[in-house]
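Collaborator request, handled under Task 6.
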Amino acid sequence: MSEYDLVCDVCAVTVEPRDAVVTWVVDAHGEHDFTLAHIACAPPGATARQEVKLLIAPNAFLAFVTDRFGKANADPEPLGTIVWALAPFVMRHDNAAEMDALRAASFGAEPGVKPGVAAAAGAPAKKDEGGGK
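Structure tokens returned to the collaborator:
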């Protein structure tokens, strides 16, 4: 396991940022039960979620952390662990999420999916219907 591996809190298997989600519960007591997990392993009782592939963009990461300030959290350790685990992905000089977002914006595609490749597994990619050479 390298320093850039994320580990699912539910199944304890490494997870890629594009396949991960941060979930938590928001109720009258504040925010709690923060979990970093595979999308398929996400706890069913979570009332809030953020996809990691979007969360590791620098501005989204800062917004996520800032939004947690001032909110009641009886057990902040899991949130702190998640923030520390995601920080190396955000702060890297060659941040793949930032490049994916720029690429997706220029092609009108989904971040994390290469241009010309369908976002859904098994779905055929759209062909260019333009008459350009």
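The cover message to the collaborator said: "The first helix runs from residue 52 to 55. The CA atoms of residues 117 and 125 lie 5 Å apart. Please let us know whether this matches your experimental observations."
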